[in-house]
């Protein structure tokens, strides 16, 4: 099959100039654009119906009524509580009716969700989306201050919180309902609304266009200002179709999945909160990651497929032999959110030769998708790569100096174009225009290249985000916290490579004159103000922070200095 025959045609403007292009790479030498070499068939084509919302699309993919009752959607790993597709549909309808008729949630209202994974999380998301409201989710381990900022920025009109995190929302004053019943019964809960007086006949029919906002998911930027990524219903429906496609081409329709990736994150939301429901998959849910609990769940529920992150792959390599669990049911592990080293990947394959290991790449701004390995053979043959462009995706590799597109094997900034690309950053035109150009290309801020066979490689991040356990940490945010300390005159934060977590934040601090501020005091000061994954893990005191003539911190100088310090200690 030639490149012309399988060339994706979902973006007409990218196809105006047809080949010559290198068939195996999908590169068009006239336009400088790389094309996905996979065209979606009729079953997986992106729906073009303008008034289709995400919830209605997902619900339309559920098993037929007589099968939905018997098919399990979710199993809680800790309680063994299970929810069938039929029950999930009923929960969604009842909750949507209660939100619309009882709480008067209307189209465009923002609903803030603060909860760990649960068997009700998907129903909450689907109910919010079905009434035309906008979903915004947050990490339960975020501090009250961080949560208040997101509530304010998103303009949330209602919050839905797990009982354990309620105290963090109290200062915001936003009306709040609980995910489960409170012990004293004083607050309304999702459980009660589902069991209340509304049924499927009162499911609200709210007209929602695909072009309208569906979700605002927060992703830190290099400025340190947390930005709301605005995703439309068209974005989410497009990525749902691609999840369905990936399950079909990899033969995952009958797999049992394990979910410890949090559903507040684009990775978890796309897979477990919405996407796999379109496939009819059964997912075992964990509220949070625990290595031994993960092994127990694999054995007990015969888990066959795990979307994971690199630290989990590393833990399996290092510690699984010490556990007495049977992992023979496992047949595929995916990894994303951060780069997986070739060494760890190769060691994993030695220990688990029967398990397919596939790396992927995506961003919140691309609705979580971009590249994927269709076959395990390709993943083994290209261990440094994160796969090929998935259908509907186009890419450019842009020279960071000249701005010109580059051919295969030349390194530059990766740019993407696809129906999944975000609408923009909430209320931030400057950041939006800096990230999406006038033709709709998303600048990823990642340095990489595409080889002659179309495999994508990430070299390093041009942008300054630190990736810790798959989470994004903005150095400027931590610098702002550090500079609020009365005994700190100046500060800079850089990433330090860490085998267990990918990277950790390290602070270079300039103390005020006469100060005897210690490393432990600095670490504690920051830890009290940010989520645990953002904590500074190492501190070095310095006389001055190296800066350019324009006043920008020269982080590369500090990174080099940190490496020298490590070597000198050996």
Automatic annotation (TrEMBL):
UniProt-listed InterPro entries: AMP-bd_C, AMP-bd_C_sf, AMP-binding_CS, AMP-dep_synth/lig_dom, ANL_N_sf
Designated name of the protein: 4-coumarate--CoA ligase
Annotated ranges, domain AMP-binding enzyme C-terminal: 477-552
Region (Disordered): 1-27
Species annotation: Sphenostylis stenocarpa
Compositionally biased tracts (Polar residues): 16-27
Signal peptide start and end residues: none
UniProt domain AMP-dependent synthetase/ligase: residue ranges: 68-426
């Amino acid at each position: 099959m030639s490149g012309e025959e399988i060339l994706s045609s979902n973006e007409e403007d990218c196809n105006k100039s047809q080949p010559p292009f290198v068939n195996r790479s999908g590169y068009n030498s006239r336009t400088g654009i790389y094309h996905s070499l996979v065209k979606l068939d009729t079953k997986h084509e992106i729906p073009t119906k303008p008034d289709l919302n995400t919830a209605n699309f997902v619900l339309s993919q559920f098993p037929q009524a007589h099968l939905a009752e018997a098919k399990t959607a979710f199993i809680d790993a800790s309680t063994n509580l299970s929810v069938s597709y039929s029950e999930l549909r009923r929960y969604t309808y009842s909750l949507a009716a209660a939100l619309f008729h009882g709480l008067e949630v209307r189209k465009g209202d923002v609903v803030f969700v603060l909860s760990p994974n649960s068997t009700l999380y998907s129903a909450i998301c689907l109910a919010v989306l079905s009434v035309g409201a906008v979903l915004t989710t947050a990490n339960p381990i975020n501090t009250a201050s961080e949560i208040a900022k997101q509530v304010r920025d998103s303009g949330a009109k209602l919050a839905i919180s797990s009982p354990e995190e309620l105290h963090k929302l109290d200062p915001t004053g936003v009306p709040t309902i609980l995910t489960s019943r409170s012990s004293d019964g004083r607050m309304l809960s999702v459980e009660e609304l589902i069991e209340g007086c509304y049924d499927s006949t009162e499911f609200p029919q709210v007209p929602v266009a695909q072009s309208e906002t569906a979700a605002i998911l927060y992703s830190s930027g290099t400025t340190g200002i947390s930005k709301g990524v605005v995703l439309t219903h068209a974005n989410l429906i497009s990525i749902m179709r691609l999840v369905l496609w990936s399950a079909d081409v990899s033969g995952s329709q009958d797999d049992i999945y394990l979910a410890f990736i949090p559903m507040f994150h684009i990775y978890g939301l796309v897979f477990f909160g919405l996407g796999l429901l379109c496939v009819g998959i059964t997912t075992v849910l964990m509220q949070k990651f625990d290595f031994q609990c993960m092994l127990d769940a694999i054995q007990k529920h015969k888990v066959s497929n795990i979307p994971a992150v690199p630290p989990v792959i590393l833990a399996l390599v290092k510690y699984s032999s010490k556990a007495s669990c049977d992992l023979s049911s496992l047949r595929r592990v995916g990894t994303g959110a951060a780069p997986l080293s070739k060494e760890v990947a190769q060691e994993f394959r030695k220990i688990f030769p029967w398990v397919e290991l596939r790396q992927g790449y995506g961003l919140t701004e691309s609705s979580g998708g971009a590249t994927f390995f269709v076959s395990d053979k390709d993943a083994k043959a290209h261990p440094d790569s994160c796969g090929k462009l998935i259908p509907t995706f186009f890419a450019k590799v842009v020279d960071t100096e000249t701005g010109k597109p580059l051919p295969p094997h030349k390194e530059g900034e990766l740019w993407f174009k696809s129906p999944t690309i975000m609408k923009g950053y909430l209320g931030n035109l400057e950041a939006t225009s800096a990230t999406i150009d006038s033709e709709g290309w998303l600048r990823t801020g990642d340095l990489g290249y595409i080889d002659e066979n179309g495999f994508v490689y990430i070299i390093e991040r041009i942008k300054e985000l630190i990736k810790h356990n798959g989470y994004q940490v903005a150095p400027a945010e931590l610098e702002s916290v550090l500079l609020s300390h009365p005994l700190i005159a100046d500060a800079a934060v850089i990433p330090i490579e860490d085998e267990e977590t990918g990277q950790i934040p390290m602070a270079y601090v300039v103390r005020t004159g006469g100060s005897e501020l210690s490393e432990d005091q600095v670490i504690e000061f920051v830890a009290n103000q940010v989520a645990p994954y953002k904590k500074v893990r190492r501190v070095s005191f310095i006389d001055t922070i190296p800066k350019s003539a324009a006043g920008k911190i020269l982080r590369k100088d500090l990174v080099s200095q940190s490496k020298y310090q490590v070597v000198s200690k050996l």
